[in-house]
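cache lookup: miss for this entity combination. No prior model stored, computing from scratch. Input as submitted by user K.M.:
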Amino acid sequence: MSEQIKNFLYLNRRAPYGTIYAWESLEVVLIGAAFDQKVSLAFLDDGVFQIVKGQDTSGVEMKNFSPTYSALGDYDVNQLYVEQESLEERGLTIDDLMHLTWEDEDEDWAEKDSIRVVSRAELASIIEQQDIVFSF
Amino acid sequence: MSELHTVNKSPFEKSSFNSCMEHVLEGSAVLLYEDGVYAAIKGTAAEGKVKSAQGVKFYALGPDLSARGVAVERVTDGVEIVDYAGFVDLAAEHDKVVAWV
């Protein structure tokens, strides 16, 4: 059986706690990471709220799963696209997001940023380049 | 009849907040909770609607702001932050609750 590596993109469009979509996406991403495919994530629309820093759910009796995004780099998930227009519409900048990084083993484990802010037009072309797109 | 309007959906994803704003009357209160608290962030289209609503008091549920990483200084001026007990007080103080779900 031939092993073909495909490009997978996870589209994250929902805020983190009002629905289960964000948490479910993260679970599927982590499961999928075990299959040695090329995985990237896009955060757009309310999805940008998923990676806002400083989340503290102690007052609402829900699990704060935001620290899990920091572990994605360890699973070779290090292409996180964030849509610029979605940030702007929500009064956010990249400084409001968690600093997510990965270590590049080809460059002596140099720490690199996982997040890349892209325009809506750039994201459209990123989507176009994928083999498979999962939507949450 | 004094009204407490509640909004628990994101203003960027659902029309709940916008519909509420188009039906809320002077002398009423609007409580933002769950994903509704995103309507209380400065620098958004929602901020303009909050500021231009005449004679309407706005509240946001603190624990929901904290859960979503929305710091107090990012909350639109004039929006009062309340806790769960404050939510109950608001419901009791008004004649009825109108929920925009």
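stored under new cache key. Helices of chain A lie at 21-32, 84-89, 120-128.
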